[in-house]
Amino acid sequence: MNQESTIQMRKKLISLAKKAGALQPDSQERMRLEAMATEYAERFFDSLPHQKAYSAFDAKDFIFMDDAIPEEGQSPSQLFKDVENRVVRPGLNTVSGKHFGYIPGGGLATSAIGDYLAAVTNRYAGVYSISPGAVSLETRLVNWMCGLMGYGANSGGYLASGGSIANFTAIVTARDASGLKAADYSKAVVYLTRQTHHCVDRALNMAGLRECTRRYVLMDNQFRMKSDELETAIRQDRKNGFIPWLIVGSAGSTDTGAIDPLYEIGEIAKNQNLWFHIDAAYGGFFMLTESGQQKLRGIERSDSVVLDPHKGLFLPYGTGALLVKDVKTLARSHGFSANYLRDTEMKNTFYSPAEISPELSRHFRGLRMWLPLKLHGVKAFRNSLEEKLLLSQYLWERLNETEEIETGPPPQLSVFMFRWKPETDDGDTNEFNKKLHQSLLEDGRIFLSTTRIDENFFFRVAVLSVRTHLQEADLLLDILKEKMSEIS
Question: For a designed S-S bond to 258, which of 40, 93, 235, 253 qualifies (C-beta 3.0 to 4.6 A apart)?
Fold first, then answer.
């Protein structure tokens, strides 16, 4: 390259750097944007008691599909208004204390601050040698959760994006640890119930096990797996030439909040040499409470367990966890080697997340969990979870005493079902409940989700928002009474 070409190239590089400078606003501009974001965040938090739990919407007013991605930058004030009015406002308000529908998630201000710091500093939390602080912090959180579940010193795991990917990782690990080969899949048997979360079924398909047999074990009248039926099914399958290899138990099912007999299942799994996996995405953190420990007795007998801190610890969505009793099984299924990563290899006493999970590029999720636990202490979370257990019992008892309300089984944790059976029922109870649900959606002050059990339409009450207290529970009861009166 001659001197003239070098000069021209340098001029162009200087010009491009100046033009690209908009991507790196100066301190004054950063503070202006941060102030606008903080002002909206504070207004959002302060107005939460008055916000609806659900806001009906016309899709054409809110969906961004036709929005242009501009060549030139736009006004930040207008963009923040779009976030407030077009992103946040329509649909389900998941941080509302009046959200009793799906298992709620998130809303802790201290988690948001942790996420902000994680995004600003952008530490890569996948490999220890690149970010020892981030990786060791996440590993400490995993070890704390392992201890909570009663796992020993050889256990481990990783922070995932949620229960779905964590269950998938568990299925892959169980498959490999059980020694299954492709030729075995058509004879392999998984034991679960009709209450097992659908992500487990999807995980089996994603793990290449679409051909395996799903053996749905009978349940009792509280939707819990019958352990005697499980053992009978395993013995019969072996006798018939099948290959039993995996039992999936629920520690708080999504529909009904059911807890399978974990201790008994653990004993069967041990005696029959099957991998015992528990989906405790919803219920696992109730192990922080005394009653939760009693109800989840036997969770320590599992080989793997999934937890969702974005449920039981009220963290933002995108925070799950997989724990495995023998962390080496995770490493055998997910270990890797690549030439461009040779300089990251380092001998240390624990695995990096990238060595024991499907992810290489990953967000530093740990800060959003570590900061609230350290700032507030575990006791604050325990108190909140104990409150939710008692609130769900309170709501179930009040509804059970209400004329024209049929309740499902009492809550085993903080989820239960009910449906309206009006005196004017002409035989189609489902239609009355659909009308009631539609009326609640249009009103929006509270939110309840629905499910079907044996083709019967039921409402689900899920009490797990950090902002749900006695006042919100009483409001739910009042609004239900009001809407039932209007419809009948």
Answer: 253
What is the Cα–Cα distance from 103 to 99, expressed in whole angstroms?
Answer: 9
Residue 64 tokens read as 């961004």
Render pLDDT for 93-151 as a digit per residue (tens, 0 to 9). 999 999 998 887 778 999 999 999 999 999 999 999 999 999 999 999 999 999 999 99
Assign 343 to helix, strand or coil. Answer: helix
SS3 363: coil
336-347 pLDDT, tens per residue?
755 444 444 445
**Domain residue spans of the chain:** 116-377, 379-487
Are 365 and 159 contacting, i.e. CB atoms less than 8 angstroms apart?
yes
Q: Which of 334, 221, 330, 321 is nearest to 279 (CA)?
A: 321
Q: What is the DSSP letter of 32?
A: H
Rounded to whole angstroms, the Cα distance separating 188 from 196 reads 18
Q: What value, to the nearest 5°, has the Cα angle with vertex 186 and ends 181 and 187?
A: 85
Query: For residues 306 and 99, what is the distance between their CA atoms, to the nearest angstrom?
Result: 24
| pLDDT number for residue 329 | 95
CB 220 within 8 A of CB 250: no
Of 286, 278, 226, 240, nearest to 415 (Cα)?
286
In this structure, the dihedral spanned by the alpha carbons of residues 228, 231, 234 and 240, taken in order and rounded to 10 degrees, is -70
Q: Which residues have CB under 8 Å from 423's CB, separation 6+?
A: 404, 488
Question: Nearest 5 degrees, angle CA 344-CA 347-CA 352?
Answer: 60
Considering only CA atoms, which of 328, 410, 330, 313 is closest in space to residue 153? 328
- Assess contact for 314 and 384: CB atoms under 8 A: yes
Residues 138 and 74: beta-carbon distance below 8 Å:
no
Q: How far apart are CA 343 and CA 129, in angstroms?
A: 9
More confident residue, 178 or 344: 178
The amino acid present at 312, given as its one-letter code, is G
Say if residues 224 and 260 touch (Cβ distance below 8 Å): yes
Q: Which residues touch 41 (CB under 8 Å, ≥6 apart)?
A: 109, 112
Q: What is the pTM (predicted TM-score) of this model?
A: 0.93
For domain 116-377, give the CATH number: 3.40.640.10
Are the beta carbons of 451 and 408 closer than 8 angstroms?
A: no
CATH number of 379-487: 3.90.1150.10
Counting Cα atoms < 13 Å in the Cβ hemisphere of 354 gives: 21
Kindly state the greatest CA–CA separation across the chain. Answer: 93
Between CA 169 and CA 178 the distance in angstroms is 14
Q: Please state the φ and ψ torsions of residue 321, each to the nearest 5 degrees.
A: -155, 140
Mean pLDDT of the chain: 92
Among residues 284, 265, 260, the alpha carbon closest in space to that of 147 is found at 284
